[in-house]
Design goal:
heterodimer, A: about 250 residues, alpha/beta, Rossmann fold, 2 domains, six-stranded mixed sheet, 8 helices, about 35% helix, disordered C terminus, B: about 350 residues, 15 helices, about 75% helix, about 0% strand, binds adenosine-5'-triphosphate, binds magnesium ion
């Protein structure tokens, strides 16, 4: 028997003034799995992601979380549903230290810390886990991109999610850093967190994802295992034929 | 006891001694300074700094720039004075009820304007102040432009009424300390983290589960209530209030100590108030006779100098200065932050065991 998917997206469309960024996209996310989304720049990946995460509502269509309609939930209601996200364009709390950034997250969501000690201690654990511990007293604006990406992840993890959305969390990392980021994501998933990620780095997608959704010009053009979608003629055309510039942030 | 633990204890003790010393100086000032003019300047410092702390909760911690704090202060002063003169309530009770009234009014007025992002809050705060002032000027019940006087009489703690300045000095100092402790508590609490997260990035705040609207309203209400408390103190001290106290320039004056001292710090308004209030009084006393308005001009120049050369305020400069390094290491004997963290962790683990 099929379990209810943790997220089910039904025919969502997003229009920005004249532009249709996402057009009639449907898919679902299996609980416990790592699901990926790929597509050329401007394909509508972040837009899809933002609609699912309540950043803005879809123009048409519906989104379900474990069968419950969450289409019009507000962004700030998500961490209490045990859903957390990162931003493609990092949003560190610039004038706060790395530690304070994470402490802030520990205070909110379904498992909000009840005391300052609890918040700090949990933040310290997460900083160790994400490899930011040594930099805990650095102002987040003074860090480079790789560390800010890590901080995005740390802040999301601090809300103790069961479902984690990562928008190009590995962009701008060198091969060694990418490898350790892949390990980190695998570890988070093993601890029981369902993951949905957008990624341009194929190595990451292939080694992590069970299911991959391909977007192009706002439409879903393929879905399947990494092998299936890589061998899909349409996907090959989009990626190779059209020479859609990849491998950048 | 380990070496580290001893070092942390010594640091704590040194800090307490220094802070206690400063407090002792302020407690002893009225015993030596009998000149009412000087005492008045201190009282002015106390309530201006307290008002500026109220502003800083919004402007510094939440990133919402209010230009209406003189109006909340005025509203608190009027609410309390009306209750004292018309309802004949006890002044202390009137002060508390006045604070609550100001909090309610601020919450109701600003609820709608937080639905919109952007500078609307600042604009509404200006409009609110002016509207309130005009309303009072045109209302016979509120005494129109000629204001309201509070009854004079025998010295009495119960009626919060004194002929000399000393009791007001101490009440003002206690008010400042209490408000400071409340602000410090807020800064470290969930609310403080919510407010600073909102200041840095509202989208990031929502993403971790903060409802920006809810916390902004909370900040406005608390901030307005503190301003209302200052209004009550002011009315009791001066014993006469009029709508002039709500003019725009007064609201701007409440911003200055925080900006000069460092709006990112809870202590900013205290440091700024200690410098700007005496400066303003000095300029007024010495220059306004020679050339009316010159004191305001010099005050503005002082402010511009801070914004130009130390945009993070005096504490912003201090926190990265050699002076701080010197005070921390040579006077307070502060151990490295890692050592403090380690000792704290060990202590908590022992407590849990
Ligand atoms: N808030 C917005 N207002 C108007 N247009 C937008 C907005 N957000 C995205 N778009 C447009 O929608 C399209 C899809 O953008 P989106 O960010 O979803 O792409 P993406 O697949 O995430 O691309 P990338 O790989 O570059 O991150 C683009 O043409 C973009 O310019
Ligand atoms: Mg994107």
């Amino acid at each position: 028997m099929e379990k209810t998917p943790i997220i089910e997206v039904q025919h969502i469309t997003k229009k920005f003034k004249g532009l249709t960024a996402v057009k009639d996209v449907s898919f679902s996310i299996r609980e416990g799995a790592i699901t990926g989304m790929i597509g050329p720049n401007g394909a509508g990946k972040s837009t899809t992601f933002n609609m699912i995460c309540g950043y803005y509502p879809p123009t048409e269509g519906k989104i379900f979380f474990r069968g419950e309609d969450i289409t019009n939930k507000k962004a700030y209601e998500y961490t209490s549903m045990k859903i957390a996200r990162t931003f493609q364009i990092m949003k560190p709390l610039k004038n706060l230290s790395v530690l304070e950034n994470v402490v802030a997250s520990c205070y909110f969501g379904h498992a909000a810390a009840r005391s300052q000690h609890e918040a700090r201690e949990r933040a310290m654990d997460i900083l160790q886990f994400t490899g930011l511990y040594e930099k805990r007293h650095v102002l987040s604006k003074d860090m480079g991109t790789p560390d800010q990406k890590r901080l995005e992840m740390a802040r999301a993890l601090a809300t103790k999610p069961e479902l984690l959305f990562l928008d190009e969390n590995m962009a701008g990392l060198n091969p060694a850093e990418t490898e350790s980021a892949i390990e980190l994501i695998r570890e988070i998933n093993k601890s029981g967190v369902t993951i949905f990620l957008i990624e341009h780095i194929m190595q990451a997608v292939v080694s992590l994802c069970e299911n991959v959704i391909v977007l192009h010009h706002g439409e879903k053009i393929a879905e399947g295992t990494p092998e299936q979608v890589m061998n899909d003629p349409l996907v090959m055309e989009v990626y190779l034929g059209a020479k859609g510039g990849k491998d950048h942030a | 006891m380990s070496v580290n633990e001893k070092a942390v204890r010594a640091y704590r003790r040194n800090t307490i001694i220094c802070l206690g010393g400063i407090l002792a100086v302020f407690l002893l000032i009225p015993a030596f300074v009998k000149n009412p003019y000087t005492l008045n300047v201190f009282i002015l410092i106390f309530y201006t700094s307290t008002l500026s702390m109220a502003w800083n909760l919004l402007g510094g911690m939440t990133g919402q720039n209010s230009l209406g704090h003189a109006a909340y202060m005025g509203l608190g002063a009027y609410a309390a004075s009306m209750l004292i003169t018309k309802a004949h309530l006890n002044p202390w009770l009137s002060g508390i009820l006045g604070m609550i009234a100001v909090g309610l009014v601020a919450g109701v007025i600003f609820y709608p304007c937080f639905i919109l992002k952007g500078p609307y809050f600042t604009l509404v705060s200006i409009a609110f102040g002016e509207a309130l002032r005009q309303f009072i000027i045109n209302s016979a019940f509120f005494g129109r432009a000629s204001g309201i006087g509070l009854p004079f009489g025998r010295d009495s703690w119960l009626d919060f009424r004194f002929g000399s300045k000393e009791p007001y000095y101490y009440v003002g100092l206690v008010m400042l300390l209490l408000v400071y402790l409340v602000m410090k508590k807020i800064e470290r609490s969930r609310m403080g983290y919510a407010l600073r997260t909102i200041r840095e990035d509202e989208d990031a705040a929502a993403a971790i589960g903060i409802n920006p609207m809810k916390y902004k309203i909370m900040a406005v209400v608390v901030s307005a209530m503190v301003a209302g408390l200052v209004g009550f103190f002011y009315a009791s001290y001066i014993r006469y209030i009029d709508p002039e106290m709500m003019i725009q320039a007064k609201s701007t004056e409440s911003v200055l100590p925080a900006v000069v001292g460092g709006a990112a710090f809870v202590e900013g308004p205290l440091v700024g108030g200690l410098i700007m209030v005496p400066l303003s009084e000095f300029l007024r006393a010495n220059f306004s006779k020679i050339l009316p308005g010159i004191n305001m001009l010099l005050y503005a120049v002082a402010l511009l100098a801070v914004i130009r050369f130390r945009p993070a305020g005096i504490l912003g400069w201090y926190s990265h200065s050699k002076l701080k390094t010197f005070i921390d290491t040579k006077i307070l004997k502060k151990p490295p932050i890692e050592v403090i963290e380690e000792v704290e962790l060990a202590r908590r683990q022992r407590k849990e065991a």
